User: Fold this.
Amino acid sequence: MTTLLNRERPPVFCPGCSHEKIVRVLDNALQQLGLSGEQVVIVTDIGCAGLFDTFFNTHAFHGLHGRALTYATGLKMADPELTVITIMGDGGLGIGGAHFLSSCRRNLDINLLILNNFNYGMTGGQCSVTTPVEAATSSGFLNQLEPPLDICRIGVAAGAPWVGRAMATDGELSAQIAEAVFYQGFSMIDIWGVCPGRYSKRNKISLKQIEKEMSLLPAASGIVPANERQEFGSHYRSLAAQVQHPGSVSGINSIFSPPVRDRCNILLLGTAGQRINTAGEILCLSAMSAGMHVTQKNDYPITVLRGHSVSEVIFSRSPVGYTGIKKPHIVIALSAEGVARRKNVFSLLDTDSLIIAADNLEIPENNARTIKIDFKALGISTPDRALASLKVLAGEGYAITEEMLYAGLANRFTGKQLNEARSLICKAGQAEKRS
Ligand code: SF4
Assistant:
């Protein structure tokens, strides 16, 4: 095979930088594997190691510092045939530590080469997660406070099934990279080298001494039998193939004429458990059956079965930009908590506005026309009150018609639920007569 090096952009690093050697070693490895540039993507992030993708005639992705593995994951999931090689420095690895752990745990078929030179070279020689405590860096004494990480030990602990460690000068490195890239799963090599531009200026350390330091750590040279398992991508695809796909989305036909001339803002105010959001949804579906543009914006706390529940629904003949309501035309008020949440809107209501409210509820002063409903007397339980209020609203012919409401129900419910909703609407019809 021929080289994949980009002849128009030869590698440029500080004199003596290990990265330059690794560029050629990687090219050798790709040639050993017989890969063409179209079959490979090199993914990098920030730092001197982030220049790698520009030196090869392959696909390339260069992104934010520490995030290279996330891009690599997306690329491999989108195109399983692609050989994905991720190159990060020890700086990026520290920044994207959680992504590194996830990649080890996930076992997607991507390869990670960590160009480990014990400091942030490009930004001035600051300490990284692999800087020895005795080293001198531009970060002052900070590296004395945190011992360096053994990347390989972490990789093994996090589940990486192929873990290697090597010197950048190792004669076997290209064969090791080829083996790692060929492996069907997540593979990583922690490659130790020198940074003459920054680190070696402050630390008189030779490659021999670095190699000696490496020999004090447990060896890491390939497959980790205890971590071997099915590759994530193929596993994902086999499970996804068994999942039943949802049927096609059914459209909502526009079959009615809306009573709304231009736009209607409806505010539903209630409490968790009153099905406020469902009522808002039915309002939207009703309006859609008359060809209106609709939006719904809900507001409720993280709590379940307690706290306010507010839904803002807008119908409009033209597309809606901002989905919030400053001044409602209609307010459906069903609980004190909901009213308290939006108490300021009541003073904005004018004589054309309408309030539909539970009869025991105290409503702040306003100029709107109000319909009070005695839900208790009608035997309508708390969870059904929002839906019952829609029937009262439809009876007014103000925002929706009864036909639109029934269409909205049919678009939201089926079977027993639909029958129950229709019965409730009939029961709520009596409320109009009593109001
Ligand atoms: S700063 Fe260090 S890592 Fe960066 S190119 Fe120079 S020697 Fe290499």
Summary: The mean pLDDT is 95. Residues 29 and 175 are 6 Å apart (CA to CA). The chain has two domains: 18-239, 263-434. Residues 13-14, 17, 19, 48, 117, 121-122, 195-198 surround iron/sulfur cluster (CB under 6 Å).
